[in-house]
Recover the amino acids of this structure.
DNA sequence: TCGAAAATTTATCAAATGATAAAAACTATA
DNA sequence: TATAGTTTTTATCATTTGATAAATTTTCGA
């Protein structure tokens, strides 16, 4: 991980402003607390078992969140440029995370620590509104994911993923996509071959 | 559905107060906006295709949220006494809900409309904090559900459900539990028989 | 550019789950 | 309490996915 000081904080501020009516002084304070960090392809942004202390915004690149057991690895979600993410349970509880975050490409992130985020949310109502909306969007996304996992077989979920993420498929390996679908890469290869 | 005026609003207010520092006047205004409604076992609290206009608190009883396609029905989640719930995507978007809510037992609910909730969240920062925490808890819950669905076969998910919801199993039918696990009731019966 | 490592495909057999039907057990109510 | 309706179980066969191994293709660094 490499830490920079260049200020592309604007994108993240813009993202926040798009979700709430952020006052000038709140935006200024928020900007002060942001830091920009870079990760090389394959680097871990958060290790499984470490505490997630930040909310991240992706300036460029691609990351996956997921976990591994003895045999396999599973993907919770992919995040690309313009997305904001964290590992919510670890971030909120400040307990070790069951999930890992890894850069799938060289990735530039803007982040804010939980400590500073809490201060801002306490002081500025719109920041809390932003966080509420952020978590709400994640919830709605997970609801449909759960519904789809209940209802559809892996082949249908694969087709849905292709349809809904046309831009991502060239950037994600077969193995990672299989991990997202909850099947083995051999099974996904078979599904793709259309047998 | 039967509408009552008896004020067991206290339980819901207590639930809210447990998650945020609710001021006296906010609590008073909140209490004014609550209404208590009763549903008989089997009644629909929200039809699939209707708009979810409320956040609900369960004073007594048990409900399921879920959806059906042509062949089968699936359960998103069960909620019992002391729980607070809504159909988040429909509640937020005010679009028709893909999910139904149904009473599994005679159930008494305290509810607040989205309109009034928005007013309170706008006016009182702690109410927004409450809502943020409510959605956060739902998110954390769904994260582990997704992780479990990726990682575990139905038999293991069934064992986990028994372990984590010892009080619910006597109150839920085999069919509904199968719908929650995403398998047929015949499959669940087979799993239970230990073949 | 070559060659080793990694990713993907193909093949085979086993295990998990679905679909269907029928029997058995349970529930509610006339 | 008798009976009709519902829920659960049991059984059989089909489909989906997993495990393993080996072949093929791709990627990437020396």
């Amino acid at each position: 991980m490499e830490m920079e000081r260049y200020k592309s904080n604007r994108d993240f501020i813009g993202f926040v402003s798009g979700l709430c009516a952020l006052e000038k002084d709140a935006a200024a304070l928020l900007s002060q607390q942001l830091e920009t960090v870079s990760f090389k392809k394959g680097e871990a942004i958060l290790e499984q078992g470490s505490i997630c202390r930040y909310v991240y915004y992706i300036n460029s690149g691609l990351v996956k969140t997921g976990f591994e057991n003895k045999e396999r690895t599973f993907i919770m979600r992919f995040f690309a440029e313009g997305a904001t993410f964290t590992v919510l349970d670890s971030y909120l509880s400040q307990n070790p995370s069951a999930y890992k975050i890894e850069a799938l490409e060289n990735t530039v992130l803007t982040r804010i620590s939980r400590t500073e985020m809490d201060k801002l949310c306490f002081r500025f109502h719109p920041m809390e509104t932003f966080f509420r909306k952020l978590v709400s969007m994640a919830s709605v996304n997970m609801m449909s994911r759960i519904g789809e996992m209940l209802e559809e077989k892996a082949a249908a979920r694969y087709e849905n993923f292709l349809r809904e993420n046309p831009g991502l498929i060239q950037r994600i390996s077969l193995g990672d996509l299989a991990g997202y679908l909850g099947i083995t890469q051999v099974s996904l290869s078979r599904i793709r071959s259309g047998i």
Notes: The mean pLDDT of chain B is 94. Helices of chain B lie at 9-19, 24-33, 88-93, 114-123, 125-151, 154-164, 174-181, 185-193.
